[in-house]
Design goal:
Layout lengths: L9 E8 L6 H9 L17 E6 L3 E7 L9 H12 L6 E7 L6 H10 L6 E6 L9 H9 L6 E4 L8 H11 L1 E2 L14 H16 L9 E9 L5 E10 L2 H8 L4 H18 L2 E10 L7 H6 L7
Parallel strand pairs: 1-3, 1-4, 4-5, 5-6, 9-10
Antiparallel strand pairs: 1-7, 2-3, 8-9
Length: 304
């Protein structure tokens, strides 16, 4: 890691917070130019603090995409909310992302109350402006401005890329001169196994409904290169809480699991630039979301 700083080079840490499903991961992936955080239209997609690195000649920003702050219903939920709230004091800037198509709710008000307890400057980022008429933005801005003194209020569409350039520039304007924490070509500090597991979990989220998405965890059991060095062999397990969920994931004659594997393999090949052999299997771990030992095994808690 090169810590040498050229004059005028800026760096800092930015936390992205907001209710579930407001587009935090979409924004993060758009900024860094590739998929780091998984995207889904189901709430609470992000479970860990995803770190993404954005580097230009101007500077380097390390983004923390946190789980959506929500009322927890399990130990996993407690962990997710704690991760999101703990980042507020660790960073130089907070991006509070809201959905322009959704009315302000108790979840937004809860986040604002948490923001009032920290000294970190906050930008209000109004996402999904491509889905509303421009005249609808002013009432939203006025509504939120009454609740908190935001450093800036910036409307964007993370999906379409609308106004994201000015947002990035505003972030750099807020940063002070500092070192390059990561090499310029690095886009995340997560190991390849973590990203691969997240890509597989994303496909399950896309292809299943109801209680199944929240009941899964994915672990990469083995990841190795073949003798030719060009093929990556990946063996991964998808954990569920009930036998009925296992049946859903496997599907009739194994078709669901095959489709999850096919879509995952294509994404992993795009990410790695190599041919991938992917083998998946499904395991049942009863009520794993409320078992601290299992949560630790799945990487949700740091070891003491």
């Amino acid at each position: 890691m090169d810590n040498r700083t050229k004059k005028g080079f800026k760096s800092g840490f930015v936390s992205i917070v907001g209710r579930p499903n407001v587009g935090k991961s979409t924004l993060l992936n758009h900024i860094v130019g590739q998929k780091i955080a998984i995207m889904s239209n189901k709430p609470q997609t992000t479970r860990n603090k995803i770190t993404a690195v954005y580097t230009t000649e101007q500077g380097q920003v390390i983004f923390l995409d946190t789980p959506g702050i929500h009322k927890p219903k399990s130990k996993l939920g407690d962990y997710m909310v704690a991760v999101a709230e703990n980042t507020l004091n660790e960073v130089d800037l907070v991006l509070f992302v809201i959905d322009a198509t959704e009315k302000r709710g108790p979840g937004d008000e809860y986040i604002i109350e948490r923001l009032k307890q920290v000294k970190t400057p906050v930008f209000l980022v109004i996402n999904k402006i491509d889905k509303v008429h421009p005249e609808e933005l002013l009432p939203i801005i006025d509504d939120y401005r009454k609740l908190y003194e935001f450093k800036q209020i910036i409307p964007i569409s993370a999906l379409e890329g609308n106004n994201t350039g000015p947002l990035i520039q505003a972030i750099f304007d807020e940063m002070e001169e500092g070192p390059m924490y990561y090499p310029p070509d690095q886009v995340t500090d997560h190991p390849e196994r973590f990203i691969v597991a997240e890509l597989i979990r994303e496909k399950v989220l896309h292809l299943t409904r109801e209680e199944v998405p929240h009941s899964i965890a994915v672990t990469v059991e083995e990841m190795k290169r073949g003798e030719n060095g060009r093929t990556l062999y990946i063996y991964a397990a998808i954990y569920v809480e009930r036998d009925s969920q296992k049946g859903i994931l496997i599907g009739e004659r194994g078709q669901m699991l095959k489709e999850i594997g096919r879509r995952s393999r294509l994404d992993i090949e795009r990410l790695m630039g190599d041919k991938v052999y992917l083998e998946l299997w499904v395991k049942v771990k009863k009520d794993w979301r409320n078992q601290e030992r299992m949560l630790r095994n799945f990487g949700f808690y740091d070891e003491d």
